[in-house]
Amino acid sequence: MPAEWAPHSAVWTAWPHDPEQWLEGTEAPQRALMAMCAAIVDLDAAGAPRGERVELLVRHAEDEAAARALLGRAAAHVRFHHTTYGDVWLRDTGPIFVTREGELSAARFRFDGWGGKYVMTGDTEVAASVLRWTGVRGAAFDFVLEGGAVEVDGAGVLLTTKQCLLGGSRNPGLDAAALEARLRWALGVERIVWLDQGLQNDHTDGHIDTIARFVAPGVVACMEPAAGDPNKDALGSIIADLRAAKLEVVTTPSPGAVLDASGMLMPASYMNFYIANTTVVVPTYGVPADDAAVAAIAKLFPGRRAVGLDGKSVVVGGGAFHCSTQQQPVP
Predict the structure, then answer these.
(1) β-bridge pairing 212-216 and 219-224
(2) Cross-strand partners of 328
(3) pLDDT tier at 77 (50, 70, 90 boundaries)?
(4) Do the beta carbons of residue 255 and residue 312 sit within 8 Å?
(5) Is 207's pLDDT higher than 90?
(6) Which distant-in-sequence residues (6+ apart) come within 8 Å of 302 by Cβ?
């Protein structure tokens, strides 16, 4: 599994549509996610794309028309796929693409609706559909794994969390050693580093892509807790555990406490950024730390522009920009 900063031919994502998943309405996440797509396409002044192609799942022609209206000129560089799917979370429902020199393949895993919490029609078929549309062959593995639960540096190291892979109902009967063997086989990694817990109220039970991200081989970004941060203990433990694993740690601010319309703490994180070919799309939350976090992430990717976009409306549904994307690397 290559690192996310390796070149992509495309990125897979979807149009948000399910009102049960978007309790504050679908309009704001639709705007945010189409802004994400436009940033990934990255048109120059003449209207030519500098970034990667977007492959966008929609339910039907009406969704496509609505998406095109928000995408503007970038729509010319988006391919639309009419299908049935739960919602936007292609990081978890799509395949994980893997490569060797000159060859692209994919790994598919069982998907159980995030431990049975969010079972939506069509989600278990998304990965196979993506492979059919791409013509890529792949292997199907008989254990539950979501793409947001694993993070790789492309040099043999994989990060994950005990809370997600060893807790709950995803893979009863599989201990750490059994899961490590399966991850090595499926994703071509050598070393697996286990962190403990994710953020409070995380719908995904501690996905790694909300707490720690590789930004170079052996170098991990994570968040420094803010004053009064409700995730202070978890974020402090993440930094300590990464350093104990002999990984280099770089930090950004944390957004601190971000609340939804009902006053509930959200699993808001600047780590849920997506690394596209020319752009890093960073979620922002309308809090004082936003500008500093985007600037800190920009310094980690000097060959790319960092674009901060509304992530708060997307986190209402359970994730942010990384959760809603799955890159298709160049073989």
Answers:
(1) antiparallel
(2) 10
(3) very high
(4) no
(5) yes
(6) none
Name 122's Cβ contacts closer than 8 Å, sequence gap at least 6. Answer: 83, 84, 85, 86
Token pair in block for residue 192: 């697996």
DSSP characters over 188-224: --SEEEEE----TT-TTSS-GGGTEEEEETTEEEEEE
β-partners of residue 99 are 104
* DSSP structure class, residue 43: B
Catalytic residues: 323
Q: What is the mean pLDDT of residues 65-70?
A: 98
Encoded amino acid at 79, one letter: R
d(CA 259, CA 264): 5
φ/ψ (deg, to 5) at 115: 70, 25
Both tokens of residue 130?
Answer: 């993506």
281-306 residue pLDDT tens: 999 999 999 999 999 999 999 999 99
First vs last C-alpha separation in the chain: 11
Q: Distance between CA atoms of 300 and 133, rounded to whole angstroms?
A: 34
CATH number for 8-329: choose from 3.80.30.20, 3.75.10.10, 2.40.50.320, 3.30.420.40.
3.75.10.10
* pTM of the model as a whole: 0.97
In this predicted structure, the answer to whether residue 328 has a pLDDT above a threshold of 90 is yes
CA angle 229, 197, 222 (to 5 degrees): 60
